[in-house]
Amino acid sequence: RVVVISPQVRKNVDSFLQKHLMQKKEYSNDDSDEVGDSDKENDENTVPGRGIARMVKNEENSLRRTNFRMEIRQRSWQESPEGEKVLSFRKTLPAYKVRETLLEVLSNHQVMVVSGETGCGKTTQLPQFILESEIAAGRGADCRIICTQPRRISAISVAERVAAERGEKIGETVGYQIRMDSQRSRDTRLLFCTSGILLRWLMSDSELMEVTHVLVDEIHERGMYEDFLLIVLKNLLSRRPDLKVVFMSATLNAEMFSLYFDGAPMLHIPGFTHPVQSFFLEDVLQETGHDLTATNQIDDYGHDKSWKMERQLRSKSHKNQVTAVAHAALAQQDYSELPSRVRDSLQLWNPESLNFNLIEKLLAHICEQDKEGAVLVFMTGVEDISALLDQLKKHPVLGDSKKVMLLASHGSMGTPEQKVIFNPAPPGVRKIVLATNMAETSITINDVVFVVDCGKAKESSYDALNNTPCLLARWISQASVRQRRGRAGRVKPGVAYHLYPRAAYDALEQYQQPELLRTPLHAICLTIKSLGLDSIEEFLGKALQPPEERAVHNAVQLLKTIGALDDHEALTDLGRHLSMLSVEPKLGKMLIMGSIFRCLEPALTIAAGLSVRDPFIAPAEKKELADESRLKFSGEDCSDHLALVRAFKAWMKAQRQGKAGEYCWKNFLSTQTLQSMRQLRRQFLGNLSEAGFDMISSDEFSQDLDLVRGVICTGLFPGVASAVQKTRSIIIKTKNDGQVNLHQSSVNGREQRIRYPWLVFSEKVKTSGSSVNIRNTTGISDSILLLFGGELRRGCEPGYLLMEDGYLEFFMDPELATMILRLREELDELIQRKLEHPKLDVHGEGN
Ligand code: CDP
Ligand code: MG
Known about the structure:
The protein has about 850 residues and is α/β, with parallel strands linked by helices.
């Protein structure tokens, strides 16, 4: 008899076999047993064969019952008046037209790639089609569909939308899971989660036995985790022939993915967007119809020079120059080699900065129009979004909340705050959303009719040569421009304004570089190791576009330096713990050390603060006040990190007294960032105690600031710079970069003389040109660096410390150094014992 056994049943049977049968070494396959015979219930242990048969049958029956319930429920919703309305809406989506084809292809193939314009219904419909068809086939109880999203907010908003389309509450059949938040239950069959969450699951369930379908969404973005999932899934397919995988992409270049999966079938969903009229800078100036004589006056103040450009753009020859200029500008060439006339015209359009006044005028112009619809403005990041918001609020029309609803949307906002952007504006009010490129593909604001595109996006990148992360506003790709434009044509014909010349568009790259090629790889390398996959190099070599060898080497080197990998690239005890914490490995180390040294409290705050963002904020023009506030919290301690700890602590206290709002306002702190930090702290605590670290008396030494400095150092190493006093200034150097700038926002940036010979830092960025900035620093002494910094090579001469790329020199009394190094060896041993057995109380001895 052929019995189809679901993965769930198989798991139960397996564990039953392991528990009861293998010991007895007997197994009779007698399934003549009658189901539902309650007298025999207790026989399971004594007559194992019968037990299994009954279990299988019971389980099958219960699965059938569950599926039946699901089917009834689904049908009664679809037949209800509201359900009918939803269904008829769904049927208008382009994705619905390919429903049958999709299901058929999927039933015959293990992998497929689906592409279609944003808004055509990939994310909300495809997983539903699969779920519905599984229910229809009687497998509803059994199926587990996972759909990954690159961003947290899209996971939530899409899950809520799909639950609503099924007439359910979130967390029933449809749920979501993101870091720090989930809505799911035993009934959940379709789960939207971030790609990072799926990767974490792979650590405990490497075969994804719990999952029947994986849909990886937005692969065209080429996010790091998505590219990673491609490799993992490619490896997994042969071991899980019953697993179905769908890749979803918003752009047409699906061939690349199909080829990667040995020619997996592709399905393109024919587009449905209303036509979008596209204006480039030259047209924008014309369209807004502003009086050029008036704008000349603005020119005199040095603002808004792009207006003047229109006149020059009228002549054809000038257009060619702009093309040349655009090319030069985009390739970041040396302008000084350009003819002077071209150089002059370049100044009229500044590709380096956003023109807020132009945006303001354009928005005012849109608000004057009769055409209804929301406006979506693509900006580069949080900073310019808030700066523009401040400016617009002062405008007589745009700042009038009775006429205009001004909103912001970026990745670092809290979830409830984000949800507001989906709400329609009241009648007669114009909704304007200033967003980062997050709004490009993954979230859908329904009523957008106007798009304003600044042409840029903040992109984290990584300079492998100098081993330095950079965060720069860069020109987006042509593919992104098309995406952004498409956002305007969702409900009716729309309009897109691109704030750069058409020539600049022509000069853009076709597609964006994949994230895997532009980010530091150490976190992903640690994941590879903890998943027990091949060697790191081999694994990453199998990527769709493998990263540079040098970047991989740097990542492995860093993991060795912090002690997560040993010399043979094997995961150490520390590495094993770090891979379980959902935080950047170096900060994870800070947490673990905080727990071992019993000063966890400050470590939690710092790790949380550095994972979220700086809570000290102020409007652009009052930036110094925020820096002053930080200085006040740091006191005499020369530490931005300790300032953070104190500010957080005082906020908690103010909260208990019900004065949190006032406190934040006075001290230039962001309530919302502090709240996210509190949430993260809780999550870290949970992680640590899961890993077995003892939380009792974990704060015994939190007041010992030298110890806390040491713990900060363990978490920031090898981020160390030396500080040397020169007559008037302090020279800061790192081993790799030579002289670096210490950012003025750091409390140490304000010191006139050095008080510590070393600064550990949590942020080093290459900004424009070749200058390297460090910010967020803590001063530490020689002995703390020797005791807590990186790994000490045994037998090395006193006075040297192993850094990423060699030795860091010390100038200290050799006798003292020898003593410290001996102490260090004992300390290392103690830490190692604790890492092996976190529960062991090693403090008693030699505290
Ligand atoms: O994934 P894709 O961009 O192809 O589209 P989707 O996110 O599945 O959205 C399909 C349609 O559902 C959109 O065109 C919207 O009309 C609608 N939708 C919505 O109204 N509200 C949401 N939160 C998500 C989608
Ligand atoms: Mg989508």
